[in-house]
């Protein structure tokens, strides 16, 4: 009875069929990265704002004031009376009514050098506002932390999606969960755009994050499972589409003037992905793990036909393993020695990559004052990462680039911390090299993670380990700003230590270059050890053949 990899080799490991599926599913990376980074444009702060005095709107209409004249009567006296008050978070503690004079509305307040002040809780005026959730929901002054909360809630959605939808994809199928997730992202995105209040906004942003994670992780696993072992570099290439989303987002935001329009632009394309129901099949590897060999064989014949090949009639059955299929759980990932080591190291690698990546992005701050151009440049910096991986990973393996990228990130963070401020160009160049290095580590962990779990646990394992990425994303801003308050360069020291430890730990992982995807936990336990040879043969328990 032939193994799945033998059948896949005869049907074509990366033919026309796989290329089409790869290209279609890769578009998910564009929409997911746009969702991931959208807060930069959805939450863009207005150029200036000030707090309106109660009754000022009615008085302004009665007196025929322009907005500038109202501001002069409101903010200028406030600033003259208290130079530390700019009028953004405080207002004059007065109320204007019908008895107030249009010529001198503050005449009854007496000496302008001692005007009473009151904190502003609402009724802000945003001058020349960029339409954003900041001006929509008054996320300024005492409410400014709510903007950070909106991104934390999105990351919590990613975290929930990794657990819930990762588990569901292993139990109910990859393509089913992918399609349901696309539907969820689209519907929740529309509701977010028209949220009547900030509470509704947060609830459906959380749900959109959850479904968004489901689309990204599931499409990644499908692409990985339908290609041969020599073609799994597509797991790196798909990351380029994530970067393309980062590059495209500022263009979308520049052309669309409202935050609701931007939100719809990054959400509605997910409905188009529902058309994949007719062109993207279920993963045949997953079907075999659920004892659906006939369906898997039918899909393999279709793959062979589209690839211009013919599947031999002797392939009446395919085997993938004799392992009993059960509902996956965390215990399955740590029950055996190799699985336990892989899981713990990968969880740490995901956490570290996300923490350092986001920390360096926030610290670097992006050069210049043009948000759209600067954001575009920050995305373009990431493009070389995928190409460097493609050039090296099939020549020298996964483990060494994985380790070296973390080590280089560690060294550059350490150097940046102690470079003097007067050579800012060098400091920024080294920091950019650090970001490129950690981006490489981030992209390699995707590939290595999927290669170190058996088919029955792959989607759940990738989703669970990558959930630490979301945890790192939540912690990064708090770690950065709190440590920077002690010493500006202290976060870089912490980043350097974390990356160095990660670089050493990943050397303990098995090398997976040129090795077929493991089908069972036993296959994982038999993967070449860190001191073993990559060419070591692995015997399938179902056949007498070696691969």
Question: If you had to describe this structure to a student in words, what would you say it looks like?
Answer:
Its main location: membrane. GO terms for molecular function: monoamine transmembrane transporter activity; neurotransmitter transmembrane transporter activity; quaternary ammonium group transmembrane transporter activity. Keywords: Cell membrane, Glycoprotein, Ion transport, Membrane, Mitochondrion, Nucleus, Transmembrane, Transmembrane helix, Transport. InterPro entries: MFS_dom, MFS_sugar_transport-like, MFS_trans_sf, Orgcat_transp/SVOP, Sugar_transporter_CS. Pfam families: Sugar_tr (PF00083). With 547 residues, the chain is mostly helical. The protein folds into three domains: 1-44 and 136-309, Growth Hormone, Chain: A, CATH 1.20.1250.20; 49-97 and 107-127, no CATH class; 330-528, Growth Hormone, Chain: A (Up-down Bundle), CATH 1.20.1250.20. Helices cover 63% and strands 3% of the residues. The chain contains 23 helices and four strands. The protein has helices spanning 4-11, 16-37, 39-42, 56-63, 67-81, 133-136, 145-172, 174-193, 198-225, 234-255, 259-267, 269-272, 284-289, 293-306, 330-334, 337-364, 371-380, 383-396, 399-418, 424-451, 458-486, 490-505, 521-525, and strands at residues 48-51, 90-92, 117-119, 124-127. A two-stranded antiparallel ribbon has the order 1-4. A two-stranded antiparallel sheet has the order 2-3. α10 (234-255) packs antiparallel against α17, α19 (399-418) packs antiparallel against α20 and α20 runs antiparallel to α21 (458-486). The longest helix is centred in the C-terminal third of the chain and has 29 residues, at 458-486. The radius of gyration is 28 Å and the shape is elongated. Residues 364-368 and 530-547 have low confidence and may be disordered.
């Amino acid at each position: 009875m032939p193994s799945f990899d033998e059948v896949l080799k005869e049907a074509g490991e990366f033919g026309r069929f796989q290329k089409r599926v790869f290209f279609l599913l890769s578009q998910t990376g564009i929409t997911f990265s746009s969702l991931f980074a959208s807060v930069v444009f959805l939450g863009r702060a207005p150029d200036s704002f000030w707090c309106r005095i109660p009754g000022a709107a009615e008085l302004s209409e009665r007196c025929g004031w322009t907005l500038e004249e109202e501001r002069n009567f409101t903010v200028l006296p406030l600033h003259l009376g208290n130079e530390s008050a700019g009028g953004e978070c405080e207002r004059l503690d007065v109320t204007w009514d019908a008895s107030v004079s249009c010529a001198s509305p503050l005449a009854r307040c007496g000496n302008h050098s001692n005007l009473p002040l009151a904190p502003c809780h609402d009724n802000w005026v945003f001058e020349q506002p960029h339409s954003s959730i900041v001006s929509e929901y008054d996320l300024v002054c005492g409410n400014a932390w709510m903007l950070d909360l909106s991104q934390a809630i999105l990351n919590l959605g990613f975290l929930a999606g990794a657990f819930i939808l990762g588990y569901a994809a292993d139990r109910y199928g990859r393509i089913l969960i992918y399609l349901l997730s696309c539907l969820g992202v689209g519907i929740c995105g529309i509701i977010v755009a028209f949220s009547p209040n900030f509470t509704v906004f947060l609830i459906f942003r959380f749900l959109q994050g959850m479904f968004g994670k489901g689309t990204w992780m599931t499409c990644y696993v499908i692409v990985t499972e339908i290609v041969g072992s020599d073609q799994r570099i597509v797991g790196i290439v798909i990351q380029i589409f994530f970067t393309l989303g980062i590059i495209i987002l500022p263009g979308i935001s520049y052309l669309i003037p409202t935050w609701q329009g931007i939100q719809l632009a990054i959400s509605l394309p997910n409905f188009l992905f529902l058309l994949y129901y007719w062109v993207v099949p279920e993963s045949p590897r997953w079907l075999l793990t659920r004892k659906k060999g006939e369906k898997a064989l039918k899909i393999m014949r279709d793959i062979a036909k589209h690839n211009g090949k013919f599947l031999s009639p002797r392939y009446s059955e395919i085997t993938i393993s004799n392992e009993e299929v059960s509902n996956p759980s965390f215990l399955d990932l740590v029950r055996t020695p190799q699985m336990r080591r892989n899981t713990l190291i990968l969880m740490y690698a995901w956490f570290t990559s996300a923490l350092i990546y986001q920390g360096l992005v926030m610290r670097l701050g992006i050069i210049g004052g043009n948000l759209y151009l600067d954001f575009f440049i920050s995305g373009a910096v990431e493009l070389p990462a995928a190409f460097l991986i493609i050039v090296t990973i099939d020549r020298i393996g996964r483990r060494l680039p994985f380790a070296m990228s973390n080590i280089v990130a560690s060294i550059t963070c350490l150097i940046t911390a102690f470079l003097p401020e007067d050579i800012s160009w060098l400091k920024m160049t080294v920091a950019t090299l650090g970001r490129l290095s950690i981006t490489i580590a981030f992209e390699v962990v995707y590939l290595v993670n999927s290669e170190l779990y058996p088919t029955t646990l792959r989607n759940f394992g990738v989703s669970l380990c990558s959930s630490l990425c979301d945890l790192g994303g939540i912690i990064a801003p708090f770690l950065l700003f709190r440590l920077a308050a002690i010493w500006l360069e202290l976060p870089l020291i912490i980043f350097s230590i974390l990356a160095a430890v990660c670089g050493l730990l990943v050397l303990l992982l098995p090398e997976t270059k040129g090795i077929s995807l493991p089908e069972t936990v036993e296959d994982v336990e038999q993967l070449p050890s860190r001191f073993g040879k990559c060419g070591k043969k692995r015997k399938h328990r179902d056949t007498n053949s070696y691969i």
